[in-house]
Each structure stands twice: as structure tokens, then as C-alpha cells.
Write a structure and sequence with these properties.
mainly beta
């Protein structure tokens, strides 16, 4: 998971501090004692089409040289010439920087402490003035990265990240209260913590919330992965969420059985962007003494710059404001839920993660069961240039519905980033659409390198023949024909996106018609087949 953490906090980010933030509760100013450090990896070879997860030990040259406090982190992904690659070409799918020498009570990685993380939403990590993440030069860091190459071309990149850092020897360090990371995850404990959202299923109003809208209990074994019971009291001072395309929000609620809410009205803006626009106020009223054991304390809200809506990485998420604080007690339970749009498309391998930072023993924050907490956050950047290619602007392949039928096919081989037969790229060269008799399946077999060239067969709306971008094509098969193979290939069980098989068969109950599909790992790969009645 470590890849996205660097890529996601991209260079064009800016911190928005609301006017309500006081000097005492605001962001760190650029004051004496703060160092602005830049780090980057050695060149990383990215294989054609790779989408693998990798773990590497971070060398001493890629960390601060002395003990101190990290107060801000902004990672990114670059070509070796310093340019940021377009997200539809190369991007960091997700990533986590981990301190193998640290300990976090909420870590899903055993005793290893997550430091910061991210995805292609590129949120900047920043802590409020007076707080920082304690760092030891002798600590062992591990970077868990997942660099996604959307092309069949080999390339080289580097991960870069900027840290604002206060050395332990600086006078300013004496003013810093250390923070402990708390990892909240709807799939806590999974090596690859994902869930699927099928278009139009399980949710209301075009939205699907995990785990609430799952048809079957995802925690049936009794391990409630989206909850964490606090082992100590303290004040949470920072929170940052992570979502994949289609994601709308991550919510953090505090649960305290038998707790009563105050008689008041709590209002928060449900969404805001860097200009303060695109916002809507949401108010919750409580009657004096009413018992409600759960209260909202934070929401990481997605704002999409993509004109097509919540369908791509052209998005920014809200992080907590510099003046935001929440006091929690020992025995309280933190709960996370994650909501995705399910009206535009199906979304596979989704994540719902929030990283909270708490000052143990700190009692300066308000108790949310005594005083309402404004869970509104702020966006840390606007639209990024690397997200400019949304795709879908013009037809680049023939419309398979207008192409003649070929012979009956029982198998399709995936080789050289093409579907044979049926690849849309071959139709303009005299290719024909393969035929499948009604009531039968079509089997796919991945013949590319199964260790990193993973492919999916994912239904898209016919003709699915327009230009590739970050929001085209989509998993939006029409008329109830949505299906997905998962990523055909091999990887460590439970630790990679691969489904550990090379074969997939389409449903055998598809009605007659022309169907189109794409590889959601390499969206330029498109294919089609035609179901016909026997004898026609």
C-alpha cells in the first residue's frame, strides 16, 4: 500500500486555513527552527503494465538525519526529469510509510506504526501548531508502494517527498507535543484492505456505504474491522482520509454507550473547496439529556473537479482543520464507514481509510458528547494538471455493434495487451466480432506475464470505443450485464490485487446482443463479443 502515499500529496497542494482558526489553534507558521527537507528515491524501474505491491526499506539518505518532529508531509511521483506523469499514464495507486521501530495501538500491521499514507487524491499531511510526529534517526522505515503503469511501456520514475521538520535540538522542539497515529480502516487487518461496490446495488440515493449496505455481514466472524476501542484517553488533533475513484466520504464516529448529547444544534459544511464554494450546511439537533451513544467527529469529504462527477482521480479530499480537536476517553470506540457513488459505475477494490493522530493524555480538546464538534474539513489542493486527460472525447475504435460477426469462439487469449479475438483495436483491420451461442460462456486466459501484467475483463457500456482517460471507460455495463473478472494473475495471497488465477468465464445467461468490456488495469485495452441465439 505504500505507493500512493508519496504520489498522493502532489506538488500543487495548498493549505486552506479557515478564518475561524485562532493563532493558538492554527497551522505551523514558517518560523525559526523548522527545516524544509526534500527526499527522493533512486530510479524505480516500472515494468510494462505493472500494478504490483512492493515493500522496500527506506535508506538513511531518504530520512531526516537527526531526531525530531515531522509536522508536514507532501509526497509525489515524478519522472526522472522531475515532471509529474499524467495520472492516466503512471500513478501511485496507494501507499504507506511505516515505522518498523515504532508501535501504534491501532496499527493493522502488527506492531509496525503507520506514519503517513495516501492515494492519488494527493492530500497533504499537516499537523496543527504545537504538535508533531516524533521521529528517531535510528528508526527503520518501510515504504509499501503500488505504482500503477497504465501502459505497455517500460519506464523509470522516482518517489519524492517534502517534510517540514523540527530537529530535537532546536528550541522550538520543546514546544511540540508528540502524536500517536491511529489507523482506521473498514477492512482493518487485511493485507489488501478492499471491498467492491456494484452499480445500483445495496445502497439508496445512488450511494453505497460500507459496511452498512453490504448484503451479508462482512464481519460475520466477529472481527468488527471498522471499529477500534481506545486503550487510553487523549485529544485527536489531526485526521486525513483515503478513498478510490467513486468515493464520496469517509466518516468517523465516536461511540460511548449510554452517553447523552447536549441540547444544541450542531452545524457543519458537508463540502468545501479551496475557495470556500461548493458547500452545503448540515445541521443535527439534539434534545437535552437525549441518549445517543454515537456522534460524528470527522468527515473526509471528496470534491471532484472532473466535470463527469465522482468517476476519477481528479479529486481532492478534506483533511481536518488546524483548529479541530476531539477529546476521547479510554474505553470509547472509534468507528469508520466509507461511502461510494454507485449510480455512475461499479467500483472494484475500493478502500476506506482514515489516519487519526492523537496526543495521549492531552485533555485540551472538547468532549463531543458535551460540546458539538464541527467535523467539517478543508481541501488541501485544487485541480491538478496531471488529471487533465479525462478521456471519452472522440471515438478511437470502430463501433462493434456495426461490425460483422466472426466465427463462434469459446476462448479469448490475452496476449501483448490485446484480446484475441475481439480486440476493438483489431476491428479496423478487418477483424470481426466473435460469436457466443446463447446459454454458453466465453473463457478468457491471460497469457501475459502473470507476475505483474494483470488484466481484468470488466463490462463497459457499448460501444466503449472512445478515447482513454481517467474517467473513461467506466465499469457501467448496461441492462444488468455488469461483470468483472478481478485482476487475472498471481501475487501473494491477500496482499495483492491479483486473484491468483489466469482464467475467467463470462456468465452463461447473457441475452443476445453485442457486449463490450475493458481492462480496468489498462483502460486502453477494449474488447467485444456477440451473444446470438443458436442457429442464427
Amino acid at each position: 500500500m505504500r505507493t500512493a502515499a508519496r504520489a498522493l500529496l502532489c506538488a500543487a497542494a495548498l493549505l486552506v486555513v479557515p478564518s475561524t482558526a485562532s493563532a493558538a489553534g492554527g497551522a505551523w507558521p514558517n518560523e525559526k527552527g523548522i527545516q524544509h527537507l526534500h527526499f527522493e528515491t533512486a530510479p524505480i524501474v516500472v515494468k510494462p503494465g505493472q500494478n504490483t505491491v512492493d515493500n522496500v526499506v527506506v535508506p538513511a539518505s531518504e530520512k531526516p538525519k537527526v531526531d525530531g518532529f515531522i509536522i508536514r508531509a507532501k509526497p509525489d511521483l515524478q519522472y526522472l526529469n522531475g515532471k509529474v506523469p499524467p495520472v492516466d499514464v503512471i500513478h501511485l495507486h496507494h501507499g504507506v510509510w511505516l515505522n518498523a521501530s515504532g508501535k501504534s495501538p491501532a496499527s493493522p500491521f502488527g506492531t509496525v506504526e503507520p506514519i503517513f499514507f495516501g492515494g492519488e487524491e494527493k492530500t497533504v499531511f499537516h499537523f496543527p501548531r504545537g504538535y508533531g510526529l516524533a521521529y528517531k534517526a535510528k528508526d527503520t522505515w518501510i515504504l509499501n508502494q503500488m505504482i500503477h503503469n497504465n501502459t505497455p511501456n517500460r519506464t523509470k520514475v522516482k518517489l519524492v517527498w517534502d517534510l517540514d521538520f523540527i530537529p530535537a535540538g532546536a528550541k522550538l522542539a520543546k514546544t511540540v507535543t508528540p502524536l500517536i497515529p491511529l489507523w482506521m480502516d473498514v477492512r482493518r487487518g487485511w493485507g489488501y484492505p478492499v471491498f467492491n461496490v456494484v452499480r445500483g446495488q445495496g445502497g439508496a440515493n445512488g450511494q453505497f456505504t460500507f459496511p452498512d449496505n453490504e448484503k451479508t455481514n462482512p464481519y460475520a466472524d466477529g472481527n468488527v474491522q471498522n471499529e477500534f476501542k481506545m486503550p487510553f484517553s487523549g485529544t485527536i488533533v489531526s485526521a486525513i482520509g483515503h478513498l478510490h475513484p467513486g468515493g464520496l466520504r469517509d466518516d468517523i464516529d465516536l461511540v460511548r454507550p449510554g452517553a447523552a448529547l447536549p441540547a444544541t444544534t450542531s452545524c457543519a459544511r458537508e463540502a468545501t473547496d479551496a475557495s470556500g464554494a461548493h458547500s452545503a450546511r448540515v445541521c443535527v439537533r439534539a434534545t437535552a439529556g437525549s441518549v445517543k451513544d454515537s456522534v460524528r467527529i470527522f468527515r473526509s469529504q471528496a470534491h471532484y473537479y472532473d466535470p463527469a462527477g465522482p468517476v476519477s482521480w481528479d479529486v481532492s479530499l478534506t483533511a481536518s482543520r488546524p483548529d479541530w480537536r476531539v477529546h476521547v476517553r479510554e474505553g470509547d470506540t472509534l468507528r469508520i464507514t466509507s461511502t461510494y457513488d454507485n449510480s455512475h459505475s461499479s467500483w472494484y477494490e475500493n478502500m476506506g481509510i482514515v489516519l487519526l493522530y492523537i496526543a495521549k493524555g492531552d485533555s485540551t480538546g472538547p468532549d463531543p458528547f458535551t460540546k458539538p464538534v464541527d467535523w467539517q474539513g478543508v481541501l488541501t489542493h485544487g485541480h491538478l494538471q496531471e488529471n487533465n486527460n479525462h478521456g471519452g472525447s472522440q471515438a478511437v475504435f470502430p463501433d462493434p455493434r456495426k461490425v460483422a460477426s466472426g466465427p463462434v469462439a469459446t476462448t479469448v487469449d490475452i496476449k501483448g495487451f490485446q484480446f484475441r479475438p475481439g480486440d476493438l483495436g483489431l476491428l479496423s483491420d478487418g477483424g470481426k466480432v466473435p460469436v457466443v451461442p446463447e446459454g454458453q460462456s466465453l473463457q478468457f486466459h491471460n497469457q501475459d506475464d502473470s507476475s505483474f501484467e494483470w488484466h481484468s475483463i470488466t463490462t463497459c457500456a457499448t460501444p466503449c470505443n472512445r478515447s482513454t482517460g481517467i474517467s473513461y471507460p467506466l465499469a457501467n455495463g448496461a441492462n444488468g450485464t455488469q461483470f468483472d473478472s478481478g485482476q487475472l494473475g498471481y501475487g501473494p495471497a491477500g496482499l495483492s490485487p491479483a486473484v491468483n488465477t489466469l482464467d475467467y468465464s463470462t456468465p452463461d445467461n447473457l441475452p443476445p446482443g453485442t457486449y463490450t468490456y475493458f481492462c480496468r488495469v489498462h483502460a486502453f485495452m477494449r474488447g467485444s463479443f456477440r451473444v446470438v441465439k443458436p442457429g442464427s
